[in-house]
Specification:
This protein is about 45% helix and about 10% strand. It is α/β, with parallel strands linked by helices. InterPro entries: DHS-like_NAD/FAD-binding_dom (IPR029035).
Length: about 300
């Protein structure tokens, strides 16, 4: 039986919205931000890949495949040059971050909500900046997924400070694919993804506190397409945890690879594909979802 009438503009029922807001109120709400959450301030993967392909003389036709383009451009130095080029491009787009100062910006609105954990595969610090502007004290970390990071002796805030535990005033940002301020942490080319996923299993590189946040809270996936390898991995982790614990709804915001007019078919497929998960799909862009969420939270009082 449906949980109430479906709002054609977004595909969430009133009961689904109420569930999200109750989880937000109780601290069981975890946004997982992809590239679409930082657009247009920063480029999407296909746009970045095309620019890098032109810059590096990529000889093949799949110029919008970021992993393959970067694999080609990493062949001589293991990725040092291309990763630093990506970092430079993030920094050079800093002037486009003016949008982050506006009250309806995706990151500013999220930072205004009572959220303890933010997960992301983005390299940028837009959500960190938004927290600072909202007078919060965010901390961040990334996984030690390669030998270079292990050799550096990198420690996460969870390891450095035994008294730290994520809270609304001191939220925790976990960058699955690294951050712009440490090029060794960035997961970018095909070899990186293979090593990252292998160590995800063999070395258990994700902290338990992050795994619990994924498995036992409402996970809200913002700015992803279904081709994202890590997204599918995180969904698999959540499926496993939910199977044993029976908790944690998931909302997928605007899969970017769905043909116009085929939203209902795509939603039905996703619900079957992600069997065992309490999945809802919001049809709209990242900013539209976050603005509506923020408005409903304010109305809730």
């Amino acid at each position: 039986m449906p949980n109430g009438p479906i709002d054609d503009c977004c595909g969430l029922t009133s009961r689904e919205w109420d569930s999200l807001l109750r989880n937000l109120e109780h601290g069981d709400f975890v946004p997982f931000l992809g590239a679409g959450a930082s657009a247009p301030a920063l480029p999407l993967g296909g746009e970045l890949a095309a620019d890098l392909a032109k810059w590096g003389g990529y000889p093949f036709t799949d110029t919008t495949n970021l992993q393959r383009v970067c694999q080609y451009l990493s062949i001589d130095d293991g990725g040092f040059a291309i990763k630093n080029e990506v970092i430079d491009r993030i920094h050079k787009r800093a002037e486009d971050r003016v949008a982050a100062q506006q009250g309806n910006d995706t990151h500013a609105l999220l930072a205004d909500l009572p959220i303890k954990y933010f997960l992301t595969t983005n390299y940028d610090d837009l959500i960190y900046d938004a927290f600072v502007k909202s007078q919060k004290k965010p901390r961040f970390a990334f996984p030690k997924w390669n030998d270079a990071l292990e050799a550096l002796g990198y420690e996460t805030p969870l390891e450095k400070d035994g008294k730290y535990y994520p809270s609304i005033d001191e939220p925790f940002i976990y960058h699955f694919h690294g951050r712009h301020d440490e090029w060794r942490s960035i997961v970018l080319n095909e070899d990186d993804y293979v090593e990252f996923l292998a160590n995800l299993v063999s070395k258990k590189i994700i902290p338990d506190v992050v795994l619990k946040a994924i498995g036992y809270s409402s996970l809200v996936l913002i700015g992803y397409s279904l081709e994202d390898v890590t997204l599918r991995t995180i969904i698999a982790i959540k499926q496993t945890l939910v199977r044993f614990r029976g908790r944690g709804a998931t909302v997928l915001v605007a899969p970017s690879n769905v043909a116009q007019g085929k939203e209902r078919e795509a939603r039905d497929y996703l619900k079957k594909r992600m069997g065992g998960m309490n999945l809802s799909v919001y049809w709209g862009d990242a900013n539209s979802f976050v603005r509506e969420l923020h408005e409903k939270w304010q109305q809730r009082g």
